[in-house]
Design a protein that fits this description.
The complex is a heterodimer of chains A (about 400) and B (about 210).
Chain A: H1 43-52, H2 68-80, H3 84-87, H4 103-115, H5 119-122, E1 136-137, E2 143-144, H6 161-170, H7 186-198, H8 209-225, H9 227-238, H10 240-244, E3 264-267, E4 271-272, H11 291-300, H12 316-319, H13 324-336, E5 348-349, H14 352-365, E6 371-374
Antiparallel strand pairs in A: 1-2, 3-4, 3-6, 4-5
Chain B: H1 2-26, H2 35-44, H3 55-71, H4 74-77, E1 80-81, E2 84-85, E3 96-100, E4 103-106, H5 123-132, H6 148-151, H7 156-167, E5 191-193
Antiparallel strand pairs in B: 1-2, 3-4, 3-5
Helix pairs in contact in B: 3-7
Classes of the chains: A mainly alpha (about 400), B mainly alpha (about 210).
Chain lengths: ~400, ~210
């Protein structure tokens, strides 16, 4: 429910924080299928996604947690969310037996990779190097990544040649990944699957000291070479959007205001600390802040106008541990956010006697909660007065 | 003489009230203390890795330590001592309790203690909590309590590094009481400082929504 939403539309409150976004069940369009382009998935496909989870996403595998009967029930329920399951029958891909992988097949697969121009999105090396298309959207205009083909543990539908064959043949509905059924023979797709399997690199958890050092050196070098991408990774994982995006009373993102601030946090007894607009808007966002001012608030909790922040809820004490390169990367990413005009008022301190009374209650009587969150956007009229539940 | 006593008593009373009010005003000293008062311990409190013999593991744990620091896990997973959070018991948990419509959640002991910590949890179980907020018994923690929606964006390598680091923390024996057995406040949106001192002196306790 937190991800897929109460009506299964893929719009739960956590949805805007996740990459990839949770599925909208009402359309009956699924990426992970063993069926032909445009077809609905089989029950077995859905059961597998629930049982095993989707690697490289927040979808966990439920097989050790709930019984097979319950999983069948969940799948039956999910199918009722889209009318397609009532009127259509899945068209399974008729795949012949899986040929044994061989060096010859892998070599032929390399040729197929070139012919089908997989490198346009996945890069010449499967890691995105030299890719001409780098930003993707699915049919719901949500951001998407091209898979890193050297990291099979992130393949949503599983890492085996059989899994890959199904993706090549059936495509991934709703994404730019097409079906190659008409442009490549069955044998060519098997060769391609074997080639992609052969691209897998050694995962970190199997590396020796030398390889770990090389891996991190490469990661750091790539981070320096592409600070915006690194900054986005840091911002997404630290979770700036959780507070810096205003939400409605159902805790869902208010459209168009991602990272534009205005989420009201009342810190008892200090006052209101609305979250700031982090977009590059000149008048209301960070557009007119210098790099050093952005870094100062991140590491010392001091706003552009000199206002001091509390050590919470904005966790600048922890962000002060960020390395210099990472701070630069975050600044670079925030500068790349498209400007959104949303004028957020500065923090307002509680009226002094009330402040003292609040502190008395907090420290002596020990009764009041330190923090209360409110729905709505303080940048516009109509911000909520009723606190959000955690 | 009587007047003098009266005046003295009056002045003492005024001074006492003023003193108490200024005590209230300055405690905790969030807005007067230097920023380093809060950020300094974030750098020094996370235990080091000199005890790890295997160099590959040490390098991975070092990356995990950095990630744990910058993500501010300590904000919720601290243990309260008599003077605010006891940072020598790094990530031993219990510092925060969340009352939600889905139940009460208490920050857990993340150190590798056998009975009260994570020692008996497998890597996959830990990674599933960090990726999806799903615990081994099947219950799901709201992402507004434990921000797994954000942590799900970690690469699998970074998630692994965090788990490796947690495995090498000094084990702290700290039983987190069953949250539902403790009295809880009923006001919606309320977050309570639980288990231990009521001292908010340096508490960078960060309930996330």
């Amino acid at each position: 429910m937190e991800c897929h939403g109460t009506a299964g539309q893929g719009d739960g409150p956590a949805a805007h924080l996740l990459t990839p976004r949770p599925r909208d069940f009402t359309l009956g369009r699924y990426k992970i299928r063993s069926t032909e382009t445009g077809s609905i998935p089989t029950d077995a496909d859905l059961v597998r996604s629930v049982r095993k989870g989707l690697y490289g996403s927040a979808m966990p595998g439920w097989e050790t947690l709930i019984s097979d009967n319950d999983i069948s029930d969940v799948v039956a329920f999910v199918k009722t969310l889209s009318p397609r399951f009532a009127s259509e029958t899945p068209k399974e891909i008729a795949a012949g037996p899986q040929p044994v992988s061989s060096p010859q097949s892998v070599r032929r697969g390399y040729g197929v990779y070139q012919t089908l121009q997989c490198g346009k999105c996945h890069g010449s090396d499967g890691r995105g190097t030299g890719a001409t298309a780098t930003t993707f959207e699915d049919d719901w205009r949500q951001p998407l990544r091209a898979a890193d083909l050297t990291e099979p543990w992130t393949f949503h539908g599983g890492p085996g040649a059989q899994d890959l064959y199904m993706r090549f043949s059936g495509g991934m509905s709703g994404t730019p990944m097409p079906s190659f059924k008409d442009s490549a023979s069955e044998n060519a797709m098997w060769d391609l699957a074997n080639y992609v399997v052969s691209l897998a690199r050694k995962p970190l958890w199997r590396m020796n000291a030398r390889e770990v050092a090389d891996f991190y050196a490469r990661e750091d070098a790539e981070a320096r070479a592409n600070p915006v991408k690194r900054g986005q990774y840091l911002v997404d994982t630290i979770g700036c959007a959780l507070c810096h995006s205003p939400v409605d009373e159902h805790k869902r993102l208010i459209p168009g205001l991602k990272m534009a601030g205005g989420f009201r946090i009342h810190v008892e007894p200090f006052g209101d600390y609305p979250t700031g607009n982090l977009t590059s808007d000149k008048a209301t966002g960070l557009g007119n802040w210098t790099d050093d001012e952005i870094k100062r608030v991140l590491t010392r909790g001091i706003l552009k106008d000199g206002t001091r922040l509390l050590p919470y809820p904005m966790d600048w004490p922890s962000f002060s541990t960020l390395k210099a390169d990472d701070l630069n990367a975050i600044v670079a990413y925030l500068r790349s956010l498209p400007p959104v005009s949303n004028k957020v008022p500065p923090p307002s301190r509680t009226f002094l006697p009330l402040f003292l009374w609040g502190k008395f209650k907090l420290l002596v009587l020990g009764s009041d909660p330190p923090m209360i969150f409110y729905p709505g956007n303080v940048g516009s009229a109509g911000a909520g007065r009723q606190p959000l539940e955690p | 003489m009587k007047t003098f006593l009266k005046w003295t008593a009056g002045i003492v009373l005024v001074l006492a009230v003023a003193g108490f009010l200024s005590f209230l005003y300055f405690i905790p000293p969030f807005l007067t203390a230097a920023p380093e008062t809060f950020s300094g311990p974030m750098m020094t409190a996370p235990p080091g890795l000199s005890g790890i013999a295997d160099p590959a593991e040490r390098a991975i744990a070092d990356r995990g330590r950095y990630i744990v620091m910058r993500n501010g896990c300590i904000g919720c997973h601290a243990t309260n001592g008599s003077q605010g959070p006891d940072l020598t018991k790094y990530l031993a948990g219990g510092g925060l309790k969340f009352q939600t419509p889905k139940g009460t959640f208490v920050s857990r002991n993340l150190t590798p203690d056998n009975d009260t910590g994570l020692a008996k949890r497998t890597d996959d179980e830990l990674k599933r909590v960090l990726r999806s907020g799903v615990f081994p018994d099947g219950h799901v923690v709201p992402y507004t309590v434990m921000p797994w929606a954000d942590l799900s964006n970690w690469t699998e390598e970074d998630r692994h590094a965090v788990v490796v680091y947690l495995r090498h923390l000094p084990a702290v024996r700290h039983q987190i009481p069953d949250p539902d057995a403790t009295p809880s406040i009923t006001r919606p949106g309320a977050v309570e400082q639980a288990y231990g001192g009521k001292d908010y002196g340096v508490a960078p306790a960060v309930p996330v929504e």
